[in-house]
Specification:
The complex is a heterodimer of chains A (234) and B (194). Chain A is mainly alpha-helical and 234 residues long. Chain A is built from 9 helices and 3 strands. Among the domains of chain A are: 99 residues, no CATH class; 64 residues, Arc Repressor Mutant, subunit A (Orthogonal Bundle). Chain B has 194 residues and is an alpha+beta fold. Chain B folds into 2 domains: 75 residues, Arc Repressor Mutant, subunit A, CATH 1.10.10.10; 108 residues, Winged helix-like DNA-binding domain superfamily/Winged helix DNA-binding domain (Arc Repressor Mutant, subunit A). Chain B starts with a helix and ends with a helix. The chains are: A mainly alpha (234), B alpha+beta (194). Chains A and B meet through helix 1, helix 3 and helix 4 of A and strand 3, helix 4, helix 5, helix 6 and helix 8 of B.
Chain lengths: 234, 194
């Protein structure tokens, strides 16, 4: 017995087609009569057919049995020929759509979606009402008005620019170093220079530091030449 | 020019517009709208624009092209997977190729009652229902959303569409006589469905 699991909502034709394809046969009355027993066996033993769909499965089962009995006793059922052909046709058509659905699945899988925009009437109208030119305005008039505007607008005189260096006094720098030492015991010359924006300020900072040492306010330590100078409160 | 007016309306409406709606707005005959609309679809497609016009039954919609799906998805952070169960995919395929199709015909092709699947597809917005008042029957077609997911301009572009759309062996056997007598009525109904 072949093991299949039908998905929910899969119909009797799906089952029949699977059985035939499993035999690697084409859809013919011969192949249908061959799988008739398997089909009946499946719906008898399998619990996952929805009871509501069972009737549809039984309709196909009945047809299959008819085909099978006709294959065995061909002279018995002359008038049911049409009914049998119908199932064959139906199954063939169903297979066509199964093939087509594979193409559709492939397309969907590519995710080449197209996107639409949202219609928003209010937003559209807001944009439109923002600017309303007077009725009967001509292109030429707009051009003349614009030329007139351009003539009236004089470019502002450009003033000569000169930058003035920020002057800083030794007193200010001393104050700055004192502030730095307010919360800590030690700082360093490099730390002080971090704020210096030009060469003058570097020199002033150095002088301020020397002045503070002269007044015995701080103690300076330098471990090696060109090394950082540690400044600590005296 | 009619075509350019349709183009502007499709651009601004963003959502699908029906031929009948366009015909009222533009004061033109439905056939003219349909012809100009079909030409627009083709022109956009042939010039490989980043914007495309898609057609579903008697409606048109402007959308971004499928070729640029990646970058658009990245921009809007879209993570739709497009995954469907096999039975849903089956039913959807049949509706795409055969739509507008009645539930009875769908059941007949699948050989099983499709009520729950149809409901599921309706909920997911992949299928829509239209009631034919004359025949008192509901017909199902795929939605613009589904066509957008496929990245095609029209279901008619699906592989083998002509053949599968027409190949109706069973129906022909069953309905041959009925169809003959109803043929003229059917033509009338078509207009009413629109």
């Amino acid at each position: 017995m072949i093991q299949f699991k039908l998905e929910k909502f899969e119909g009797p034709l799906s089952l029949l087609l699977k059985l035939i394809e499993h035999q690697e046969m084409d859809i013919t009355q011969v192949s249908m009569s061959k799988v008739a027993d398997q089909y009946v066996g499946y719906i008898r033993s399998n619990g996952n057919i929805d009871p509501e769909d069972m009737a549809d499965f039984l309709v196909v089962a009945a047809r299959l049995l008819l085909i099978k009995s006709k294959a065995l006793l061909p002279y018995l059922y002359p008038e049911e020929e049409e009914e049998i052909e119908e199932l064959e046709q139906q199954l063939k058509m169903y297979r066509e759509f199964i093939e087509a659905s594979k193409g559709i699945q492939k397309r969907l899988g590519k995710k080449i979606f197209m996107f639409a925009r949202e219609f928003n009437r209010r937003a559209l109208l807001n944009n439109v009402n923002l600017f309303a030119p007077p009725k009967g305005l001509k292109k030429d008039e707009v051009r003349i008005i614009f030329a007139e505007l351009l003539r009236r607008i004089q470019p502002p005189e450009v003033l000569e620019e000169k930058t003035i260096d920020h002057k800083i006094s030794i007193e200010e720098k001393i104050l700055h170093i004192q502030k730095m030492l307010l919360n800590r015991i030690k700082t360093s010359f490099n730390e002080v220079l971090r704020q210096a924006s030009n060469k003058t300020e570097v020199i002033v900072s150095f002088l301020a530091m020397l002045e503070m040492m002269r007044q015995q306010e701080v103690i300076l330590e330098q471990e090696e030449m060109f090394g950082d100078i540690l400044i600590s409160k005296n | 020019m009619l075509k350019s007016k349709i183009e502007s309306l499709l651009f601004i409406s963003a959502k699908p517009m029906a031929i009948s709606q366009l015909s009222v707005l533009l004061k033109a005959k439905k056939e003219e709208i349909k012809k100009a609309g079909d030409e627009l679809v083709l022109e956009y497609k042939e010039t490989k624009r980043g914007v495309q016009i898609i057609k579903n039954g008697n409606k048109f919609q402007m959308v971004s092209s499928s070729e640029n799906a990646r970058v658009v998805q990245e921009f809007i952070k879209d993570e739709t997977t497009g995954e469907l169960s096999r039975p849903s995919l089956e039913a959807l395929t049949i509706i795409a190729y055969r739509g507008p199709i009645s539930k009875i015909d769908l059941d007949r092709i699948r050989g099983v009652n499709c009520a729950l699947i149809i409901r599921n597809l309706l909920l997911r917005g992949l299928v829509e229902a239209k009631t034919d008042k004359v025949k008192k029957e509901i017909y199902y077609t795929v939605t613009f959303d589904f066509i957008r997911f496929l990245g095609i301009n029209d279901v008619k572009e699906l592989a083998d569409y002509e053949r599968l759309h027409k190949d109706d062996t069973i129906d022909r056997v069953l309905l041959d006589s009925e169809q003959q007598s109803n043929k003229e009525k059917k033509e009338d109904n078509k207009d009413k469905v629109e």
